[in-house]
């Protein structure tokens, strides 16, 4: 997790964005971000985070010849789902969905029990 946090910090210094909600699950992650006005490059940020994280990991995993040829490590899914928030109701629904995802997946009995979630930050701030 520390390597992922470092990768996110590194990218945010070059390409700012606000993390509204984030959860990291065993096999994927969910996030709601706010980008600077006039900026909609979510893809570039995700790509930069994935690259920074992958470069920080020790290169111990086996890779197929195809992955080697493509320069891929197989850590991340190749694509992601992007959704532009329509209004306050849509925003609230997506933030809630991100924060309760560990509970929906059956990983915990209460959303607050999952350690890799921005829910803890929200609670600390009184959101």
From TrEMBL:
SMART domains reported in the protein's UniProt record: Y1_Tnp (SM01321)
InterPro entries recorded: RAYT_transposase (IPR052715), Transposase_17 (IPR002686), Transposase_17_sf (IPR036515)
GO-annotated biological processes: DNA transposition
Residues in coiled coil: none
Residue ranges annotated for the Transposase IS200-like domain, each copy included: 1-101
GO MF assignments: sequence-specific DNA binding; transposase activity
Protein's UniProt name: Transposase
Organism: Denitromonas iodatirespirans
Source organism phylogeny: Bacteria, Pseudomonadati, Pseudomonadota, Betaproteobacteria, Rhodocyclales
């Amino acid at each position: 997790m520390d390597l992922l946090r470092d990768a996110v910090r590194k990218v945010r210094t070059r390409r700012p964005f606000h993390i509204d909600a984030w959860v990291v699950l065993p096999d994927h992650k969910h996030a709601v971000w706010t980008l600077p006005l006039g900026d909609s490059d979510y893809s570039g940020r995700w790509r930069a985070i994935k690259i920074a994280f992958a470069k920080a990991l020790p290169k111990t995993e086996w890779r197929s010849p195809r992955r080697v040829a493509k320069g891929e490590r197989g850590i991340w899914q190749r694509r992601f789902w992007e959704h532009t928030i329509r209004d306050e109701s849509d925003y609230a629904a997506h933030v809630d969905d991100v924060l309760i995802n560990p509970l929906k997946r059956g990983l915990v009995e209460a959303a607050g029990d999952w350690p890799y979630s921005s829910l803890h930050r929200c609670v600390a701030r009184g959101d």
